[in-house]
Amino acid sequence: ATFGGIEIHEQIIHEAADGARYLVLHGDVFDVVVVHARWLALLGDWAYEAALRLSMAVSFVRRKMGLPYWSLSAWAKHRVKTAVNFIGSFETCLAEEARREGVEGVICGHIHHAAERHIDGVRYVNTGDWVESCTAVIERHDGRLEIIRFADEVRAERERRPVERAPLALAS
C-alpha cells in the first residue's frame, strides 16, 4: 500500500549503508497480551492514556519550575517488574525472528523505550517513541544506527547558547 507516495509495509528488510541487513517492523504482532488477551490490552491502553495525561500535567509543572523534561508514565512503566520481564521476552522473541529471517538485526517500536543491544549475536534496536520518551533512531551516512533523545538535544542546545540577561540597572 502507499500513502502520499510513501510505501507502507507491515515488515520489510532494510539494508543499511554499511551493508548490514535489518528486519524492520512495529513489533505488536509479538506482543502476547495484544494477540491473546485483547481485554487486558484495552485496559492497559486506558491506564497508559491516563498516565500520559498525568504526565503532561507533571511536565507542565516541571517546565514552569525550569526543570528538564521527565516522563512520569515512562518512569512508572519501567519500575514495574512484570513490565521489565515482558520487555525482555519481547526483545528475545524479536531477535529470534530476525535470526529466522537471516538478517543481522531488528529495528522495531511497540515498546515505548528506546534501546540498542545485542541479543545472542543479533542487534536489537527499538526506536522508543516521539510522544512519551521523545526518541527516534537515525541511520548515519556510513550505516551506523543511533538513538537520538530529543530532551538531550534540547539540553545540549541550551548549554551551547549563551545565557541572555537583561541589563543590570544600578541605583545611585
What does this structure look like?
The protein is of the alpha/beta class. 42% of the residues lie in helices and 22% in strands. The protein is built from 5 helices and 9 strands. It has helices spanning 32-36, 38-64, 72-79, 81-101, 150-160; strands spanning 2-3, 6-7, 11-15, 21-25, 105-108, 115-119, 122-126, 135-139, 145-149. It has a 5-stranded mixed sheet with strand order 3-4-5-7-6, covered by helices on one side. A hairpin with a 2-residue loop joins strand 1 (2-3) and strand 2. The chain is globular, with a radius of gyration of 20 Å. The chain starts with a strand and ends in a 12-residue tail after the last helix.
Report a brief summary of the structure.
The chain has 172 residues and is α/β, with parallel strands linked by helices. The protein has helices spanning 32-36, 38-64, 72-79, 81-101, 150-160; strands at 2-3, 6-7, 11-15, 21-25, 105-108, 115-119, 122-126, 135-139, 145-149.
SSE layout and pairing:
Layout: E1 2-3, E2 6-7, E3 11-15, E4 21-25, H1 32-36, H2 38-64, H3 72-79, H4 81-101, E5 105-108, E6 115-119, E7 122-126, E8 135-139, E9 145-149, H5 150-160
Parallel strand pairs: 4-5, 5-7
Antiparallel strand pairs: 1-2, 3-4, 6-7, 8-9
Largest sheet: 5 strands, mixed
Shape from CA axes?
Answer: globular
In order across it, which strands form the biggest sheet?
3-4-5-7-6
Distance between the termini: 74 Å
Strand residues, percent? 15-25%
- The value of Rg in angstroms is 20 Å
